[in-house]
Amino acid sequence: MTEDKKFPIPTAEKEDIEEGLNVVWNMFEKKVRRRAEIQARLTEAVGEKALDLLMREGLLRESGDELVFSPEGERLAKDIIRRHRLAERLLSDVLSMARAELDSNACRLEHIISPEISESICTLLGHPRQCPHGSPIPSGDCCRREEENIRPIVVSLDNMKLGEEGRIAYLLLHDHPELHKLLSLGVIPGAEVRLHQTFPSFVLELGDSQLALEEAVARNIYVRKK
Fold this sequence. Notes:
Arc Repressor Mutant, subunit A; two-stranded antiparallel ribbon
C-alpha cells in the first residue's frame, strides 16, 4: 500500500461551502453585501440552506443588515476564487476552450485542484493577474516567490526572447489604454506573433506587419510560446 498523501475527494457539503464562498466573493467584489440580496443569490446558485451553512461554519457573520467574511471565511474564499480563476485561464489559454464553457468546467475543477497543483498551474501560466473575464486572480505564494521551477508556457511579451514565436493568449486591457488601439490592428487572442526586436522598443511581427511597442504595452500582452 502506498504511503503517499492522498488529496481527499470533496464531500457534497464541502462543495456547497466552496460554491457558496465563490458566490459571496463575487457579490462582495460588486459591492453587494446586504443579507437579503446574498441570501437570494445563494438560494438560486447553491440551495436555500447555503447561507445558513456558511453562517453555521463561522465563515460569514452579520454586520447590521450586511454580511462580512470572518478571517477564516475570507481565507477560504480567496483560495477557492484563485483556484476557479486559474482553472479558467488553464482551460482558455492551454486547452483553447470556448469562453461560454469556461465557468461551468472551472466550477468542476476548482473542487479537486490541490494547493500544489494550483501553484504549478499559476507558474505554468506565468502568474496571470486576471481571469479571461477580466476579474483579478488573488496572488499565491508562488507569485510572491516568483517560482520558476516549472517553465511558463504563457509569458508577457517583455519576457520573451528575441526571435521567439507564439500565439497571443490574452491582453490586460484594463492596464494600458494603448492596448485597445492594438485590437484594431490584429493584436488579438489567437494571432501568431514573433518578437523581432527588444531594444530600444519591442517590435512585434504580426503577419506581414511590424508593430513597435513601448515596454509598458508589451508587459500587458501575454503570449503562449511555441
